[in-house]
Amino acid sequence: MTTGFAPRPTGLSTPSPATGAPTRGAAISVRGVEMRFPGKDSDVLALSGLDLRIEQGQFVSIVGASGCGKSTLLRLLAGFETATDGVIELDGVPVRGPGPDRGVVFQDYGLFPWRTSLENVAYGPRRNGMSRRQASAVAQEALALVGLDTARDRFPGQLSGGMQQRVAIARALANRPSVLLMDEPFGALDAMTRSSLQTELTHIHESTGTTTVFITHSVEEAVNLSDRVVVMAGGAGSGLCGHVIADIPIDLPRPRDVTAAAFNEYERAISDLIHGDGS
Ligand SMILES: Nc1ncnc2c1ncn2[C@@H]1O[C@H](COP(=O)(O)OP(=O)(O)OP(=O)(O)O)[C@@H](O)[C@H]1O
Ligand SMILES: [Mg+2]
Hints:
The chain is of the alpha/beta class. The chain folds into two domains: about 30-100 and about 180-275, Rossmann fold; about 110-175, no CATH class. It contains seven helices and ten strands. The protein has helices at about 70-80, 115-125, 130-145, 160-175, 190-210, 220-225, 260-275; strands at about 30-35, 45-55, 60-65, 85-90, 95, 100-105, 180-185, 210-215, 230-235, 240-250. Strands 6-7-8-3-9-10 form a six-stranded mixed beta sheet, sandwiched between helices. It has a four-stranded antiparallel beta sheet with strand order 2-1-4-5, covered by helices on one side. Helix 6 packs across helix 7 (about 260-275). The radius of gyration is 19 Å and the shape is globular. The N and C termini lie far apart (about 55 Å). Residues about 5-20 have low confidence and may be disordered. It binds adenosine-5'-triphosphate and magnesium ion. The site of magnesium ion has 2 residues, from helix 1. Magnesium ion binds next to helix 1. It holds the Pfam family ABC_tran. This is ABC transporter ATP-binding protein. Keywords: ATP-binding, Nucleotide-binding, Transport. One of its GO terms (molecular function) is ATP binding.
């Protein structure tokens, strides 16, 4: 059985033989978004006047100081929370809650410890109505995509942190999402594992064409992976609410050379923006 994970050009609409679902990335439109959390003395205005457009199949990283609203934005995109004002749309359809069209990966893996890798990855497709056989085939292909086909019968406790995060990525991909949302997914990994997962994520993005929103505190990681790096500012202690201050297309060929002068230029410019020296 084939499940539609074969390489294909980014941005094309190809039906998946296993699910019949479209497999290209969705366009994301965020317009005038405000997020206000009720506080004890006063409300916390985490985001205000936030506009962001991400094209089908783009890989966009979001960077910015702690508390500027990156995770809040990601949770709104995932549909875990609802913005207090503004519009969030995927391919023109308003986001009204979580859905299988969006795969989410957090820093802490979030796997079921009592399920094997295969069972963890097959869980979503099963819940979405696939037969056991079909879900198992989809899960096996997703695990192969992250280089873990040999660990399918192992439990999370028997896997390294990098392997667990691979399973979490496979699980997010198994529903054939049109958008992949990742919140500091490699933040807890050592430098070598992080670097190899970055390479793998680039390959996965090239082969699936999934629109990807990736939050990181590593400017090098953002420049290495992304078509665009969006810089946010505001939040805790700044007196301002979270908003976008810069949107920088990364015009470098892949695979990227992190030691190249042009790469370092991007890193320096983005770091200056984050630390408030660049505007
Ligand atoms: N559920 C909540 N209730 C109240 N305030 C919240 C809630 N979630 C987030 N906030 C506030 O919203 C602001 C943005 O938080 P958010 O977690 O989005 O920041 P972040 O950019 O992801 O930070 P970090 O880089 O540290 O992960 C912060 O001031 C935070 O305290
Ligand atoms: Mg965060």
